[in-house]
Write a structure and sequence with these properties.
Low-confidence stretches: none
Structural class: mainly alpha
Number of strands: 0
Strand content: under 5%
Largest sheet: none
Helix content: over 70%
Radius of gyration: 18 Å
Number of helices: 7
Mean pLDDT: 91
Length: 144
């Protein structure tokens, strides 16, 4: 029985550390998104992003979680999504874009360290994200 309690204790400690790590990422991003959403920057951002977001059949304010995903991980995108009220189709499209192109600066640096061209890898992932976003946005408009 002592092995069981030790495993529960170790699992609980690891789980708590994981929760704290996720909170360190998600809370600041969520607060920043809420500040942007209610600031005078948001209407300007919507005007600038509207033509690009139309390509993906997304509302203009979807630019916030999409851009957040380019510079942070998937958890940052989830935190950014929490600040808005998107349809299921929009959430699915944003998630697929983020899965294809997330943490671009970090992953481009990692690619360079292992001998791959970081810039080309970043452009490739962004290109795949755009194609994925167009396709999933189209599917969302048809099925969801």
């Amino acid at each position: 029985m002592s092995k069981f309690f030790a495993a529960v204790k170790n699992g609980g400690i690891k789980g708590l550390k994981t929760v704290l790590m996720l909170l360190k990422v998600m809370v600041p991003i969520y607060l920043l998104v809420v500040l942007i959403k209610y600031s005078p920057v948001m209407p300007w951002l919507e005007d600038v992003a509207s033509p690009v977001m139309k390509i993906f059949r997304l509302p203009p304010d979807a630019a916030v979680p999409v851009v957040t995903g380019l510079f942070s991980d998937e958890y940052g995108v989830v935190a950014a999504l929490g600040g808005f009220n998107f349809s299921m189709a929009a959430i699915t499209t944003i998630a697929m874009i983020a899965l294809a192109a997330h943490s671009i600066p970090v992953e481009a640096a990692v690619a360079q360290k292992i001998g791959l061209p970081g810039g080309i890898m970043a452009l490739l992932r962004i290109g795949i994200a755009v194609l994925t976003g167009i396709f999933v946005g189209w599917l969302g408009g048809v099925f969801l």
